[in-house]
Design goal:
With 490 residues, the chain is of the alpha/beta class. The chain has 2 domains: 169 residues, Rossmann fold, CATH 3.40.50; 248 residues, no CATH class. The strands form 4 sheets. It has a 7-stranded mixed sheet. It has a 6-stranded parallel sheet with strand order 12-11-10-17-18-19. Helix 4 links the parallel strand 4 and strand 5.
Length: 490
């Protein structure tokens, strides 16, 4: 037993040293923490080895989230109480909140006595009464609700506004109210685009109110009717037509007046003047909000190569407001067809835009004596098939562009057309007006071809076209007077 005594003494000594060392470390850490609490106001950073850093941050985040939730709930409670006072909402209303991101709208409704309230959200929320669903695909039966509400996280952000509106119309009872909060109604164009979506609704009120962040938003109140509302009769424009004549509302005429002025005097160097003029263009999508549209479509008539205008201009310069456009390239020249096979998002129509469906001549040379002069300048001119030997070229198929347009797009689409058809515009434009298809076009970029001064030969006009600059100017002026937002293209 005596031989083990020295080891026991050593163990006791080591234990005492470890205890004192640990105690010292604890005192140092406590002192350091006390220093941060007392001197630095309870803040710490990653270099200070503050063990309470994550705990403090988490607690702060929770407190901030709770405060924001309370603020949103109080805001919506105030909004809904005002609607109750106006008779739009009642405690007996079966209510739906569309695309609620955190559920405060539903909570607010229930707190003020509208207990039969539910919501849908594209986020999975673990809250009572909130179902996981898309705003354009409500998981409810027809004619379910008396009241539906969409905050600025709903209609403003949806990728399918038409389907959104159709679902509201489907699930809301006749006589029921739909209340929309939006930041996108910033002009009369966007406002009337919104009204077009709600054919079965009457506009009850439009007013500006404070949003959640005290910034002004629009509150729009609709009431659902039993039958389609004739918005045109109420002064609400559509792109539709009466006897193939476009209805042109006052706000659209004002937009046309705001366009860049037409070049009145014939330019001596049109290839320079018209190209520079593109910098002066007042794009429609720079003047108005285009959010409330069904689809966004760009049609390049006489597209030639992809880089000619689709890649060089439309893709990079046209203001799209972050919308994704469907692109159609109408090009009869087979030289360019293979290129489009490699271009995603572009649908090629390998035909010539024309006034009816028929076989055409694709002109190579206008007269045999001008073979060398004209070969490099013929840019896809088309002519009806005839026996004249003055035309040499390939046979191609033409299609009725106006009929195709009416079968492809609808009034609720946002449609941009660029037309460069080597003189055929003097056939196509009248056809578009005659059929009413022109009413479907929101914005047009038109190159008008005339007997311009030749670059090669000062004082000489091109024999390629018979129309004059005055006739082109009249074409543009008549289109604008008819309600078409048209620009001079180069």
């Amino acid at each position: 037993m005596e031989t083990h005594a020295p080891k026991s003494a050593v163990n006791i000594l080591l234990s005492n040293i470890l205890v004192r060392l640990l105690s010292f470390c604890v005192l140092v850490l406590l002192a350091r923490f006390a220093y941060f609490v007392a001197v630095k106001g309870q803040s710490c950073d990653s270099l200070n080895f503050c063990f309470f850093h994550q705990t403090v941050e988490s607690a702060t985040a929770v407190a901030d989230a709770a405060a924001n939730s309370d603020r949103r709930r109080a805001y919506y409670s105030s909004v809904f109480q005002d609607l109750i006072a106006e008779g739009v909402l009642s405690t007996n209303s079966k209510s739906l909140c569309i695309e609620t991101l955190s559920g405060e709208e539903v909570v607010a409704l229930r707190e003020i006595g509208v207990v039969n309230s539910v919501g849908i959200s594209s986020k999975k929320l673990s809250l009572e009464g909130i179902r996981f669903a898309k705003e354009f695909n409500q998981p409810f039966k027809n004619l379910t609700f008396d009241f539906e509400f969409s905050s600025t996280t709903g209609m403003d952000r949806t990728l399918k506004p038409v389907q959104f509106a159709l679902e509201v119309s489907r699930t809301l009872k006749p006589g029921g109210f739909f209340v929309l909060h939006t930041e996108s109604v910033t002009d009369k164009y966007s406002f009337h685009s919104l009204l077009q979506l709600f054919d079965y609704f009457t506009l009850i009120n439009l007013r500006e109110i404070d949003g959640l962040d005290s910034l002004a938003i629009s509150e729009i109140i609709f009431r659902k009717e039993n039958e389609t509302v004739n918005h045109a009769a109420r002064g609400t424009p559509t792109k539709g037509k009466t006897a193939n004549k476009c209805f042109v509302p006052r706000y659209k005429r004002q937009l046309i007046r705001n366009l860049e002025p037409l070049i009145k005097e014939e330019p001596l160097k049109p290839w320079i003047t018209l190209k520079r003029n593109i910098k002066n263009v007042e794009y429609l999508s720079s003047m108005v909000d285009i959010s409330f549209k069904n689809r966004y479509i760009y049609i390049d008539v006489g597209a030639r190569s992809y880089g000619s205008s689709i890649g060089s201009w439309f893709k990079h310069q046209y203001p799209k407001q972050k919308k994704i456009f469907q692109i159609y390239a109408v090009e009869a020249d087979s030289t360019f067809h293979d290129e489009y096979k490699m271009k995603k998002g572009v649908k090629l129509l390998p035909y010539a835009a024309w006034i009816r469906n028929e076989t055409l001549f694709f002109e190579i040379n206008r007269e045999p004596s001008r073979k060398n002069e004209e070969r490099g300048r013929a840019m896809g001119r088309v002519h009806a098939v005839q026996s004249s030997s003055n035309f040499m070229g390939d046979l191609i198929e033409g299609f009725d562009f106006a009929v195709w347009l009416k079968s492809t797009v609808v009034e609720r689409d946002y449609v941009v057309v660029k037309m460069d058809v080597e003189g055929t515009e003097f056939h196509l434009i009248p056809r578009l007006i005659e059929t009413g298809a022109i009413c479907l076009i929101d914005e047009m970029f038109l190159e008008c071809h005339y007997n311009r001064w030749q670059r090669c030969c000062p004082g000489k006009r091109s024999p390629k076209y018979q129309n004059t600059y005055a006739q082109c100017l009249e074409l543009f002026s008549s289109l604008r007077k008819s309600g078409v937002l048209v620009h001079q293209w180069w």
